[in-house]
Task: inverse folding
């Protein structure tokens, strides 16, 4: 999600770390252990269907209730807990609005022919042999330019998943490639909110942070590209003969024209000009609706008797454009705004659990405990990585996964004689990129909802995201590019 630097500074000033000296480490871990047990039971025993389709949401609320009981035992008032949950909800208001617009965007871009046009031309340009590494590079370029992994997934990410699916490439691989490239760009772009947030927390400047981060980030993305290139040679795709049939089917269903690319082009141009994401995406929905009337009259007529009603239906709820190809019919479907409700409810419930954990002082206690065992330089880096990943899982928010360890570990790095860019780099390598690997984290929920691919499907292929913390630990273990403080 794109934010200007001033907004990142506001986040830093507003973040409060609640330290409750009365709560013990064992008490702090009780809600976490129960939450992890319930989530594991739901996945491995109930196959994700416990409590029905909204099992993870209920589990997070149960975790919040258990956390509240621990809080009451330690004399934390209900008012304090509610206030912290409210602060968490306020912090995700814009992401939720973006999710609503992404749902509307997906529906309107489908019936306007924009997504089919992307698939149509993409099939002719992106061959199976280069598709995965090309997806990483395309996503990285867009993300560096916009500073936002979220916007990247909502635009080119959706298109790449559609193109790759038509080629017969597993959606988990495609999503992993898109996410790897998007988070590389999100880390390295000076426009990214987390790239501004991490150095501010550690006490270094933006461009020193980006330069120092390149030492671990560039090797990681190179390894990622190599692995995806190798994977491309092992994929059994549909082949060129089937592609010609797919092209003919798309052409028979939609009016395909290069003019349709004016809409995504306008959205990307607005984002590059630092237009607020809500305005840019909203404009994309309105323009797509206009283009649907101009270019896709037959498609709208087939959906319902009224063209206007077809547009409204596509924006708000389920829509499926039938073609003479079963694979394409499955691809050309969208849930609209209502299709995003599951993801939005997951984020809201995650903020309840994370907010109460913060309110009772459990987050601060767990982080301090990790800090206390960091006796060596490598131990300090390792504790930072564990703290960031753990907070992504517990607090369900990548900003808290940067802010809390940043504040807690800053003095420890100074005491070890380490320059602040060591901390800022580690915060990004383990806080920013691992957020998308947690299904109930705001980032994991968003990417899964937008791309239509579950976290479990893309987890193993989001190589850049789980290789980044490993790379930073290897650099620490072998003392590679570990900058010391310069005494004045």
Result:
């Amino acid at each position: 999600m794109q934010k200007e630097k001033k907004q990142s500074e506001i986040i830093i000033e507003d973040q409060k770390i609640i330290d409750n000296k009365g709560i013990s480490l064992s008490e702090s871990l009780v809600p976490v252990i129960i939450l992890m047990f319930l989530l594991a039971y739901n996945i491995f025993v109930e196959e994700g269907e416990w409590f029905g389709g909204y099992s993870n949401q209920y589990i997070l609320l149960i975790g919040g209730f258990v956390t509240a009981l621990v809080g009451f035992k330690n004399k934390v008032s209900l008012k304090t807990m509610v206030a912290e949950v409210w602060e968490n909800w306020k912090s995700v208001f814009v992401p939720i609005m973006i999710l609503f617009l992404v749902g509307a965007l997906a529906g309107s871009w489908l019936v306007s022919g924009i997504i089919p046009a992307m698939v149509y031309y993409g099939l002719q340009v992106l061959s199976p042999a280069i598709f995965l590494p090309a997806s990483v590079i395309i996503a990285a370029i867009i993300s560096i330019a916009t500073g936002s992994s979220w916007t990247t997934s909502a635009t080119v990410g959706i298109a790449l998943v559609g193109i790759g699916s038509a080629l017969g490439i597993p959606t988990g691989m495609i999503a992993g490639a898109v996410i790897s490239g998007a988070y590389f760009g999100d880390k390295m772009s000076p426009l990214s909110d987390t790239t501004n947030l991490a150095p501010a927390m550690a006490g270094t400047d933006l461009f020193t942070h980006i330069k120092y981060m390149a030492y671990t980030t560039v090797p990681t993305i190179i390894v990622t590209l190599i692995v995806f290139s190798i994977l491309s040679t092992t994929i059994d795709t549909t082949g060129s003969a089937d592609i010609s049939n797919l092209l003919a089917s798309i052409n028979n269903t939609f009016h395909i024209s290069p003019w349709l690319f004016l809409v995504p082009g306008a959205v990307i141009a607005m984002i590059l000009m630092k237009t607020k994401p809500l305005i840019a995406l909203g404009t994309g929905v309105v323009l797509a609706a206009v283009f649907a009337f101009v270019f896709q009259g037959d498609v709208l007529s087939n959906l319902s008797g009224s063209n206007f009603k077809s547009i409204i239906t596509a924006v708000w709820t389920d829509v499926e454009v039938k073609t003479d190809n079963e694979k394409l019919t499955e691809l050309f479907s969208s849930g609209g705004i209502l299709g995003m409700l599951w993801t939005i409810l997951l984020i809201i419930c995650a903020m309840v659990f994370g907010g109460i954990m913060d309110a009772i002082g459990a987050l601060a206690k767990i982080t301090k405990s990790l800090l206390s065992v960091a006796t060596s330089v490598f131990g300090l880096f390792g504790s930072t990585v564990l703290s960031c990943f753990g907070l992504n899982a517990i607090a369900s928010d990548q900003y808290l996964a940067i802010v809390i360890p940043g504040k807690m570990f800053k003095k420890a790095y100074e005491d070890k004689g380490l320059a602040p860019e060591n901390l800022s780099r580690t915060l990004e390598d383990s806080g920013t990129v691992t957020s998308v690997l947690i299904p109930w984290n705001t980032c994991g929920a968003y990417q899964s909802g937008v791309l239509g691919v579950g976290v479990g499907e893309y987890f193993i292929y989001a190589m850049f995201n789980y290789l980044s913390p490993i790379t930073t630990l290897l650099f620490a273990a072998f003392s590679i590019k570990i900058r010391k403080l310069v005494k004045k």
Observations:
- Residues 1-14 have pLDDT under 50 and may be disordered.
- The radius of gyration is 23 Å.
